[in-house]
Amino acid sequence: MGDNPSRDPSRARIRKPSEICAQCRNRKVRCDGNRRGCDNCGRLRFECSFVALPTRQNESPEPLERRRVRRACVSCRERKLKCSGRFPKCSRCEERGLACRYPDSGRVTSSDPQGAQTAPLSPPLQQAQNSSQSPLPPAQTGAVAQSRDKALIHEPSRSLESQIGKQAIKQHIEAFFEFVYPLPCCGFFHRASLLQSWSKGDLSPLVLQAICGLTSRFIHRNSPEHHNLAQKWIEETESRLLSRLGHPTVSDIEAWLLVILDHCFSRRVSRMLISISLAARLAYILRLNYEDDRQPFLIQEQRRRLMWSIFTMDTLYSSGKAEFTACTMETLYIRLPCNETSFSMDIPVSTEVLAPHSESHGESAIGLLGYCIRVLEIRDRVQRLTLTITNHRKPLEECLVAVNALENELQRFHSSIPARYRFNTKTFSLHAFSPSRTPFIMLHAC
């Protein structure tokens, strides 16, 4: 049969030699006589004599190698019809409005008036295409991809256990909550949930590897061997996170923040700033800067703390410079973190926003972390105003008015701090030997 199986009377009659291109005559195949280039030459990428240059039309055609198209589509194969092999739809399926699917790719194509032509792929590329295009229905394709990604990211977990063992991993987790978690930019993990997930094997291996790489400096303080191993873990985690940018998850952002903190501790400032910007964009993609009331309280609080950790780290190291700022207050539509007791015991409470419209009365549900975020935001505006005055960007009179406004705001903020968080001899001694000493000192040092 011909390449085009439509019942056209002109196809049934014997064509004159002038209606057959030189390539089809040389190959002894039927030609459709299209003066703009026949279909056979088009799909096999020959230069049809109908469209050849005038100087070459009188030349005898060169011997042509036999070119076969890729595998026939499923529809043509079932009906034992010749398939044009055109992508994304063969000629027959396009004319009849059928769904065209090739067995090597498993891809069902929609109707497209212009079929793209592709050359046969080499075996490695063909294998890569087959692995990336699943023949399962769309509902199952996502599940298969998710399970494949889960199996991929669990490789570091198995490698980690084989290198240092479960007892050492638990030691790193404990070191994290003792030395790192009290920092205002790292209080986004719920201790009980994390330990439970790790014991069940559900904790993200990238998070686990980042925790071990970050806390190794606290466990093995003067060990170059352990330092190199921890650096290797951080590099592997960062590399895998970069390969997963197309499908970010909340766990990926948690791992990113741990990698960023390691860059900070190791004084890799440029990589730290770039990674902060990347983490902020990923958080915006997952809409962590918005409240999600559909989630349980604990999940909501973890999302808030994760977003505020990005804001805190970005504010600390941008130094009031707009060109280094990736996460601004204007983009955050979430409430402040709650106190540690409510978070650790999963006690639902409602907190305030960063800049409340009116002064709150009674006991506030926010903790030291929330007050640290407020003072850091004021500190950021002070730094920006300082740059404005130094660079003469606004009249001095206008800047003095802004200075007075900030001074009044700081006084109101100081009066809003509960007595248990104010700096005096009693409160200092109470916080000195507890994990809250770091945010307590930071609150009053800013």
Physical arrangement of strands within the biggest beta sheet: 1-2
Which sheet architecture does the biggest sheet show? 2 strands, antiparallel
Low-confidence stretches: 105-153
Approximately how much helix is present in the residues? Answer: 55-70%
Number of helices: 21
> In whole angstroms, how far apart are the ends?
83 Å
Helical/strand content category: mainly alpha
Sequence of secondary-structure elements: HHHHHHEEHHHHHHHHHHHHHHH
The coarse overall form would be elongated
Region (Disordered): 104-148
Biased composition (Polar residues): 107-134
Main location: nucleus
InterPro entries: TF_fung, XnlR_reg_dom, Zn2-C6_fun-type_DNA-bd_sf, Zn2Cys6_DnaBD
Explained architecture:
With 446 residues, the chain is mainly α. Helix 14 packs parallel to helix 16 (297-318), helix 16 runs parallel beside helix 18 (368-390) and helix 18 packs antiparallel against helix 19. A hairpin with a 6-residue loop joins strand 1 (100-101) and strand 2. The model is unreliable at 105-153 (pLDDT under 50). The protein has helices spanning 9-12, 22-27, 39-44, 54-57, 74-78, 91-96, 123-132, 138-153, 155-164, 166-180, 191-200, 205-219, 224-243, 250-265, 269-285, 297-318, 340-344, 368-390, 396-416, 425-432, 437-445; strands spanning 100-101, 108-109. A two-stranded antiparallel sheet has the order 1-2. It contains 21 helices and two strands.
